[in-house]
Amino acid sequence: MEWSRKYGDIFSLKIGPSTMVILSSPTAIKEVVDKTSWAASSRPPNYLGELAAGGYHILLAADSTANSSPRFLPTPPATLLRNARRIVARFFSPANALHRVPVQAAESTQLLYELLIRPESFSKSIRRAAEWAMKITSYGQRVSSPDSPKMQEFYHMLHRFMRILIPGAHPSVDLIPILKYLPDRWAPWRAACRRTRCQFKAFHLEHSRAAEVRSATRDGDGMTVEGESFMNSISRMGLSQEEYDALSYTGVTLVEAGSDTSAAFLLSLVLILAVYPEHQERAWRKVEAIVGIARLPELADFGHMPFVDALIKEVVRIRPTFPTGIPHFTTEEICAIPPRELLLQIDTTVILNIYSMFHDPDIFDEPEVFNPNRFIQSEHGTRQGMDTDFRDSFSFGAGRRICPGLHVARATMQLTAMRLIWAFSFSSAVDPKTERVIGQDLDFYDPAGYR
Fold first, then answer.
1. Which one, of 193, 179, 198, lies nearest residue 70 by Cα?
2. CA nearest 45: which of 16, 25, 88, 23?
3. Cα separations (Å) of 263 from 124, 267, 322, 447?
4. Which residues participate in heme binding (predicted)?
């Protein structure tokens, strides 16, 4: 963010032999990522990610195996993974997203019950609810309890995987390829990747086999064809074994990506509601005016609550789940983008600087201040005249690699946020000895990610 203020909305870095370009404005993202089709839609080589995920992770998978940069592991054909993304996008289309609403409603109702009886375990309950919704969607299975050992194992596996992906956590084999030849005793990251890959594989086999049994008997989750799980859906497509393997492993990615991002948003929402009681009170009054006290809010009510919509958008803006998105990678040369005559060479890593853009004082008035009213005053919360290239999907990525589940994710955010605001009053904890408020600021996150 500091560099973008100094060097502009497009600047580049040389990291070893590779080039990285950082995009920090809506116009820059539109010109480089959106308008260039496949040219900037691949992913950079990621040796550790490929080793940990076994090459079937559609979020990390390259769009072409013809990149001049080396890929160190045998991976599925790029066409298989592109087809997988297309099928996932159809499964999570806006029309099909409506069929997921009963699952989201059940998940949020269970979450309210758990918070009511055990408010001290709100973090575990939120994570269970997020994982349950995605497991039902992907495999047709649910998590019965926030203390479920399987749920805890899943999140430990997920955090180990995220730790592997954090830049700087391990030496970069992509920049120094000779590191892949180090003996295991000098390369502890290799063992960590293999352990995570084994855990991913075990998770996938356990849940996919159970889904196949339910698909054969049609007795499992009781869903209609329109509301069935992802695994049940692809089992009826007549795919080859290779295609089925690539697609079925995608179920792991859906659970991993969907559950963690939904939980991250809801935990940020709870924190912000506690820190800003005045906004929480106003949101509750808006919900109560539409819904009353005799029933739970439903997704159909959301269109009548512009302030709650503004509150959700401001939570996403001030604390984006992916501050720098997921890197893109150019497979073709991108040049002559007016009016800057920009040139991006092939094999350039492209970073979407989402956090910097959401906190740019040229785009937002007082960007460090939490102010939902900005989204009442303008569609995207921006300063007057700054709406030209802005859109409300930047937190889900851009271009051809935008998150295919964004419609389901938005519905989950809207429905759960309404119900949490309607049912509870959140406040900061108080130290019983000093009687001082604990953590009354927007940065009060547990580094381990559990609270």
1. 179
2. 16
3. 10, 6, 13, 15
4. 403
Q: What distance in Å separates the CA atoms of residue 408 and residue 29, rounded to the nearest whole number? A: 24
- pLDDT reported for residue 18: 87
| Tokens encoding 48 | 């550790």
Cα–Cα distance for residue pair 290/206, rounded to 1 Å: 44
Residue 276: pLDDT band with limits 50, 70, 90:
very high
The C-alpha atoms of residue 176 and residue 117 are separated, in whole angstroms, by 52
In the chain, how many H helices and how many E strands?
Answer: 16, 6
CA distances from residue 408 to 47, 98, 136, 296, 340 in whole angstroms, order as listed: 31, 8, 13, 20, 37
Going by C-beta distance under 8 Å and a sequence separation of 6 or more, which residues neighbour residue 316? Answer: 265, 395
Burial class (CB in 10 A: 0-12, 13-18, 19+), 19: middle
Beta strands in 194-289 (DSSP E): none
Q: Where are the extended beta strands (E) located within 192-300?
A: none
> 148 pLDDT exceeds 60?
yes
Q: Tell me the H-state helices in 31-148.
A: 47-53, 78-91, 94-97, 101-117, 122-139
**Count of residues for the chain?**
451
Cα–Cα distance, 118 to 145 (Å, whole number): 12
Place of tokens 């695994």: 231
Contact 417, 311 (CB under 8 A): yes
Identify which of 344, 352, 345 has the alpha carbon closest to the alpha carbon of residue 327. 352
Q: Within 10 A of 168 (CB to CB), how many other CB atoms are there?
A: 6
Q: Which residues of 130-165 are buried (b: 16+ CB within 10 A; e: fewer)?
A: bbbbbbbbbbbbbbeebebeebeebbebbeebeebb
Average pLDDT estimate for 407-416:
92
Give the tens place of pLDDT for each residue, 161-186: 888 888 778 888 888 888 888 888 88
- 403 in a known ligand binding site: yes
pTM reported for the whole predicted model: 0.88
Give the pLDDT confidence of 47-105 residue by residue, as tens digits.
Answer: 888 888 877 777 887 876 444 444 444 455 567 767 777 888 888 888 888 888 888 89
Cα–chain-centroid distance for residue 427? 26
